[in-house]
Design goal:
about 110 residues, two-stranded antiparallel sheet, alpha+beta
Length: about 110
């Protein structure tokens, strides 16, 4: 089992969600987050140029069985990548998931996902 964490642009959320549903991935957790990386965005505030420290993004967390890792990642990449492939399109992190327990039925492991 793996936990896939993706950080994407806010504007790409609907496209990514639809791509995941088409790939038969229907269980996701979505959070609004802020952060910074290589992407630099300038704004004008009260006539002054300002570079904010944090950029709003969307964080997706998806627990999948090993067979679905590549399918899930490719769906996210295809939907989140802008046509220019510019900085700020996001990142995907894949981590080992030791255990998953469905609280309602107490199922464990891959069956609980």
């Amino acid at each position: 089992m793996k936990l896939i964490t993706a950080i994407i642009r806010e504007s790409q959320l609907d496209q990514v969600r639809e791509a995941l549903i088409e790939a038969n991935i229907t269980r996701i957790t979505v959070s609004r987050v802020s952060g910074h990386g290589q992407q630099i965005r300038e704004e004008i505030y009260r006539g002054r140029r300002v570079v904010p420290n944090l950029t709003p993004k969307i964080r997706l967390e998806i627990a999948v069985n090993d067979d679905f890792v590549d399918t899930t990642c490719q769906a996210i990449i295809d939907a989140a990548k802008t046509s220019q492939g510019t900085l700020g399109d996001g990142k995907i992190f894949i981590t080992q998931l030791e255990e998953c327990i469905r609280i309602r039925t107490e199922e464990r492991g891959g069956k609980a996902i």
